[in-house]
Design brief:
Blueprint (H helix, E strand, L loop, with lengths): L6 H18 L3 H10 L9 H12 L18 H11 L5 H4 L6 H11 L2 H12 L4 E5 L16 E5 L2 E12 L6 E9 L10 E7 L5 E6 L12 E12 L10 H37 L1 E2 L2 E2 L4 H30 L6 H26 L10 H10 L7 H14 L3
Parallel strand pairs: 1-4
Antiparallel strand pairs: 2-3, 3-7, 4-5, 6-7, 8-9
Helix pairs in contact: 1-4, 4-8, 4-9, 6-7, 6-8, 8-9, 8-10, 9-10, 10-11, 10-12
This protein binds flavin-adenine dinucleotide.
């Protein structure tokens, strides 16, 4: 394993860092301001976002996540990791480069499992950043950590499928640009447990799709993106909207969640790096009880522990990315599960130390620490709770000694 960065990656790191400093960090507050100036925080996307997207596109730092060079930048997962990390330093960063969740995962699904027609209709505008998408798997009525529990139905009727179900936490559904949902539901209750589910493309303007409410995260609404509770009531879509094939929903979920999960981990490392940077700057600029905060015993320990934990998480992320590139997402499942447990908890610890070191400022909106903490906390649940990933790691470990 060689974890050194290639020349190409170093150049992109330089470009991204410069872009973040010149364009993204200075506009974080403007983004929020523009959101608040609208009729409602959900009515539109702050204009600054589209401006920044156009700039990033013009500079060629766009769609870096897709390993398939036909559609994306052709970077391996290992090459993308240090770049995604830089974008993750800001909560508005990933979207600027068209590299945000859930679109990256959804685009990967359409690239891998979509037909030419589906690619033309949905992938092309997603890659261009013209529309956005959501992923509707989780349901309020069942423990959705176990995807075989999903109850929504996708039933064939002539040339169409009819969809009925209630979903929640469909991230991105609030965005006025969100035009398409990938919905998971059951097509055949008599098939074996992992072949009952299918995934289907559902245009959000189809009759019968209703966004019931948007769910906040610790009080953050995440507008205009948000997390929707959606009912699908007798929604009819053409039969050709099925992805890959009937009964392939579970298999797609496994494939989709691999890249999506590691992208979250990469971003969390960036969030932790920025938190540590803010912590270090602050404690050297303030004095309490006769000496700089930086020289108060425990703070040095926080700094050291944060650096150690970030480096550990980064190395495991790179190992998981390397495995995905060399043996495939399926074979890399242990590493993906491990890093999905490690990265959110690491980021939460680093962010918490930074919040503590900043004093009351740390919990305010003057810094991004509090919002990043709330986001990182959700990632111990979203894309599979820690316990499910631990169970997976334990199962694979035990298998070695059967
Ligand atoms: C901010 C946010 C965004 C999200 N975005 C999306 C999205 O875009 N699309 C989507 O479909 N879903 C999304 N989700 C939902 C997320 O994927 C689910 O919440 C998650 O899979 C867990 O399902 P559940 O909430 O039904 O919890 P449950 O399945 O009810 O599980 C509850 C708890 O039980 C425990 N548990 C479960 N299984 C085991 C086990 N095997 N061993 C030990 N303990 C276990 C865990 O502690 C778990 O947290 C999002 C969630 C959040 C918070």
């Amino acid at each position: 394993m060689d974890f050194s960065y290639s020349q190409k990656v170093k150049e992109l790191q330089g470009k991204l860092t410069a872009f973040m400093e010149a364009n993204v960090y200075p506009n974080e507050r403007i983004y929020e301001q523009q959101l608040n100036e609208q009729e409602s925080r959900w009515s539109d996307v702050p204009p600054i976002m589209e401006e920044l997207k156009q700039k990033a596109k013009a500079e060629g730092i766009w769609n870096l996540f897709l390993p398939e060079s036909e559609f994306g930048a052709g970077l391996t997962n290992q090459e993308y990791a240090p770049l995604c990390e830089i974008m993750g330093r800001s909560l508005i960063g990933p979207e600027v480069f068209n590299c945000s969740a859930p679109d990256t995962g959804n685009m990967e699904v359409i690239v891998r499992y979509g037909t030419d027609r589906q690619k033309e209709q949905w992938l092309r505008p997603l890659l261009a950043g013209e529309i956005r998408s959501c992923f509707s798997m989780t349901e309020p009525a069942v423990a959705s950590a176990d995807a075989t529990n999903i109850e929504a139905r996708i039933e064939r009727d002539g040339d169409e499928y009819v969809i009925n179900g209630r979903k929640w936490w469909s991230s991105g559904a609030g965005d006025p640009r969100c035009k398409i949902a990938i919905v998971m539901g059951k097509t055949d209750l008599s098939a074996n447990r992992h072949e009952q589910q299918s995934m289907i493309l559902v245009p959000l303007d189809s009759p019968g799709v209703k966004i019931e409410r948007m769910l906040p995260v610790f009080g953050y609404d995440h507008a205009p993106h948000g997390h929707g509770e959606i009912t699908y009531e007798n929604v009819r879509v053409p039969a050709e909207n099925i992805l890959w094939g009937v009964g392939k929903g579970f298999a797609i979920a496994q494939g989709r969640l691999g890249p999506g999960r590691i992208h979250h981990c990469m971003r969390l490392i960036g969030a932790a790096e920025r938190a540590l940077e803010e912590l270090c700057k602050r404690v050297q600029s303030r004095t309490a009880f006769g000496k700089p905060l930086a020289r108060q015993g425990v703070i040095g320990e926080w700094i050291a522990d944060s650096r150690i934990e970030i480096e550990q998480a980064r190395l495991l992320t790179l190992k998981a990315a390397y495995m995905m590139d060399t043996v495939g997402n399926k074979e890399a499942k242990a590493e993906i599960a491990m890093i999905k447990v490690v990265a959110p908890s690491m980021a939460l610890r680093v962010l918490d130390r930074a919040i503590q070191a900043l004093g009351a400022a740390g919990v305010s909106n003057d810094f991004t620490l509090a919002a990043q903490w709330a986001n990182a906390r959700t990632l111990r649940l979203a894309d599979g709770p820690d316990e499910v990933h631990r169970a997976q790691v334990a199962k694979l470990e035990l298998k070695k000694y059967q």
